[in-house]
Amino acid sequence: MTERGADAETDGGAGTRRVARVVLLDPDDRILLMHGYEPDDPADTWWFTPGGGLEGEETREQAALRELAEETGITDVELGPVLWKRYCSFPFDGRRWDQDEWYYLARTRGTGPVPGPQALTELETRSLAGLRWWTSAELSAARETVYPTRLAELLHRLLDEGPPSAPVVLAPEIV
Asked: How much of the chain is helix, strand and coil, in % rounded to 5?
């Protein structure tokens, strides 16, 4: 998971965690976001894309698909190109997380309810409140915290212009 929630092992906490995230769009161009919160402060909430840290020798593509299946139950997807890359650092569950995140475009043909989490870690179970499809307009009007903080603008551009020819490097986000 981890936008500000954690799942996979890190390299001992000494380095930057490699993360694959999924910008999952349905046939109506809605984006699926997860609702997370600080385990010790459920009032501290935010929305973020599915995804998480790489495990073992898996590629980022493999991690993106695995994390999507574990966190949402959605497996019928077409994984597209890397849209964006960013470095982020944030406090969560009593420690600081430093992450190198790659955001993959993915499409699903499903439009119904999200099946739901299939294999959450203990920390994810303590910090995940649910999932929701958002239209671009809803995301633009949201008053809640969303990561990356420019997601509404990025989604609008993606829907208007299509995927970039090469991944866009976003400004680092330090919380």
From this structure: 20, 40, 40
Residue-level pLDDT at 61:
97
The predicted model scores a pTM of 0.88
Closest CA to 44 of 86, 101, 90, 88: 90
CA angle 164, 64, 35 (to 5 degrees): 95
Low-confidence ranges of the chain (pLDDT < 50): 1-13
Supply 44's token pair: 């501290």
Count of beta carbons in the 10 Å neighbourhood of residue 89: 13
pLDDT confidence of residue 14: 53
Alpha helices, DSSP H, located in 30-133:
60-72, 122-125
Neighbours of 84 (CB within 10 A): 22
- Say whether 10 sits in a helix, a strand or coil: coil
